[in-house]
Amino acid sequence: MNTAERILVQDKAAFRTIEPPCPYVGSCGGCTLQDLEYADQLTLKHQRLLRTLGALDPSLTLELVPAEDPWRYRNKAELTFSALGPVADSLVLGYHAKRSFWRIVDLDDCLLLPEAVSRLIADVRRLAQHTGQPAYNPRTHQGFFRYLVIRHSRSTEKLMVCLITTQGERSLIDSLSEELVRKHPAIASVYWGIATNVADVAMAEELSLIRGEASLEDRVGPFAIRLHPCNFLQPNSAQAERMYEQVRRWVSASGQGVAWDVYCGIGLMAFYLSSAFKTVYAVDAEERNLELGRVNAQANGIANVQFQLGRAEDVFLNKRFWLGEAQPDVVVVDPPRSGLHPSVIATLLSARPKQLICLSCNAQTLVRDAQMLMTGFPRYRLRDIVAFDLFPHTPHVEVVALFER
User: pLDDT, tens digit, for every residue of 8-22?
Assistant: First the structure.
């Protein structure tokens, strides 16, 4: 048990535990709070956040916005194949076991996924088993089936399936996908991804559309979006809408000025900002995100978002970008768990936006970055902070902080 797990166990000791409805709790490494009532989960998360964020302001008050429905909320599933099952030559499909790189928990259902997704997982496992092809073994780097990625559209109830394997015969995937689509009419598209790298990440170097539509249609707030298998989208769409709307309410603008959306993904935050600014610059390091961002901007009639390809720390090396017409009035950043790169913080201070809004899935790195903003020059003060429970039954929380110069 690592330090974070030990602290979580200590924090949970103050609450009455219940019988978790999921049979995989204890073996799966996911829902470590499912043995608490949802109201107690929220109290626990609130206490933990205050303990961490109190370093910014000991008198801090914090709102934690709960999920309306803490079950079946995930719009994307990423599962791993394994041959290391309880029966010889069996094929396992599920999540990584707790504290295990090698062992995969074979899932019949996940209570965080829509029921249609769980039914599909069971059929993919069965059909993959019938092919006779083995699962990939991360120890020997041999085998065929590696990952299964499924997206679910909340607005259309359609599904996108992506099977990620090592090199192999397309005819095998063609046959498997034909049977899947026959049994699951909600499938809008099937992709085949080929991954030859040894990293345990559900990403493909090659991606081919096998059947159906090239993209999955969905909606987030007022915006129609199209998605590909590997684009980033917050996994809880309903809570993401509330979070983006909170940011939009904070922004003090009236159709003029410039905003930045840094680490923009497919540009959803930029879309929310587009009505408040003359121009929004959206920065991301993934070309596939920006390609889809442009498609979605056009589909929603948004013409004032300009997408910039590159890592934020590299894009900001060009001072002509942020000292010229792109000098921002408001900046929104949504960095990875590791937080903001030091050179990005330096650029933000030099660009001197009136408002700086940080979205964070890691309160500890948010505190680190905020302290640099609050003690640098020009100095920023923490004006407001709101947390959103995007991940019920897990310890994770998304925090949105508003800083003003």
Answer: 889 999 999 999 999
